[in-house]
Write a structure and sequence with these properties.
Layout (H helix, E strand, L loop, with lengths): L1 E11 L2 E4 H4 L7 H8 L3 E4 L6 H16 L8 E5 L10 H8 L7 E4 L5 H14 L5 E9 L10 H4 L8 H9 L1 H4 L4 E11 L5 E9 L7 E2 L12 H6 L5 E2 L1 H22 L9 E4 L4 H11 L6 E2 L2 H4 L6 H12 L7 E8 L3 E8 L1
Length: 350
């Protein structure tokens, strides 16, 4: 018996934001962003749309593809680093928005590897009989981290422009803010009697000694956990040592792909498609080169969506399923690394 994907779906923010639009609020350009990240555009939500809203939209599409009703879902696992509120988490909010009834909802915080960690959690719940059919969601509204005061300046809905002081402040964070988008991806998981299909294995690692290489320098390590001075200093915005993240990603991601394949008696030749977390196209190109995989056996969509953290892998997976890039019997490998540092890989037989 194995855990199989019954359905998948994804949703994005309502506003398409091309690279050129970000030049309205900080010192950047389409060329500057493409050269460093490969990103061409991303989506931001409209005012009032939350992470749980996007998660609910993606979950609804996954249930529709699976051909099931909300009453058939008996557990929710929600991965995000941008919840609607400090508490409660988004899982219970999605449970309510989708009308799932009083089923358990679990929130996990593994950032860019949230979906892979979520697969392991979901598989364990299904194997233990704690759930029969589970909704796993990865969703983010990163635009809440953006420092500019008026999103109309990037949406093209206002003629306002930042002051010189605001422009300089925004530019301080451009190496991070240009990377992120708002989106959600979801899968419906269930147990199957087919021994040839399903989730074969998940391998995970963490190293907390790198925690401050990628983190938000505010929170409950301080009293109060957010203050006016913190906001003025930009400490509500993620801080990143880009070189350390790049170095870890291009080292650990190929390592764990080889690790999980060896653990399962398989080789890279057996993998039909590698779907990596979409943090930076240059990272994924380096991982692809390290593994020696041709272009037709990797999939990247960061160009269209930017980095959507816990949502990147399920979005790419759904696109590949719907486009026929994955067929029954194909072996798919998911891999990612993110803040923590956490990194992991999963093998799925479609």
């Amino acid at each position: 018996m194995g855990t199989i994907v019954r359905g998948s779906g994804f949703a994005v923010g309502e506003h398409l934001v091309k690279n050129e639009a970000l030049a309205n609020v900080c010192e950047t350009s389409d060329q500057w962003i493409r050269e460093r990240s490969g990103i061409e555009q991303r989506y931001y939500v409209k005012d009032g749309t939350t992470t749980s809203d996007l998660g609910a939209r993606a979950g609804k599409l996954a249930m529709e593809q699976a051909g099931i009703s909300p009453s058939e879902i008996d557990y929710v696992v929600f991965a995000t680093m941008t919840p609607d509120y400090q508490f409660p988490g988004c899982g219970v909010l999605v449970q309510s928005k989708l009308g799932l009834g009083n089923v358990p909802s679990l929130d996990i915080r593994q950032q860019c590897t949230g979906f892979i960690y979520g697969l392991q959690v979901a598989d364990a719940l299904l194997r233990a009989g704690q759930a029969k059919r589970l909704l796993l969601i990865g969703a983010e509204v990163h635009s809440g981290y953006m420092p500019w005061r008026d999103f109309g300046m990037v949406f093209g809905t206002t003629s306002a422009r930042p002051t010189a002081e605001e422009y300089a402040f925004n530019t301080r964070f451009r190496d991070r803010t240009v990377l992120f988008g708002d989106a959600a991806g979801a899968v419906v998981l269930e147990r199957s009697d087919d021994p040839e299909r399903g989730l074969l294995s998940v391998s995970l690692h963490s190293d907390g000694s790198f925690a401050e290489k990628l983190y938000v320098p505010s929170g409950f390590a301080w009293r109060p956990y957010v203050s006016e001075s913190m906001v003025r200093e930009g400490r509500h915005i993620p801080e990143m040592d880009g070189r350390s993240v790049f170095r870890m990603a291009v080292t650990k991601m190929p390592e764990i792909v080889r690790e999980i394949l060896a653990k399962n008696g398989r080789t890279l030749d057996d993998v039909k498609l590698l779907i990596a977390h979409q943090a930076n196209l240059r990272i994924n190109e380096a991982v692809q080169k390290s593994l020696g995989l041709p272009d037709d056996r990797v999939y990247n969509n960061i160009q269209k969506f930017g980095n959507t953290t816990a949502a990147t892998i399920p979005i790419a997976y759904d696109e590949c399923r719907r486009a026929g890039r994955i067929a029954p019997g194909d072996l798919v490998c998911f891999v990612g690394l993110g803040a923590g540092f956490h990194w992991g890989a999963a093998l799925l037989r479609e």
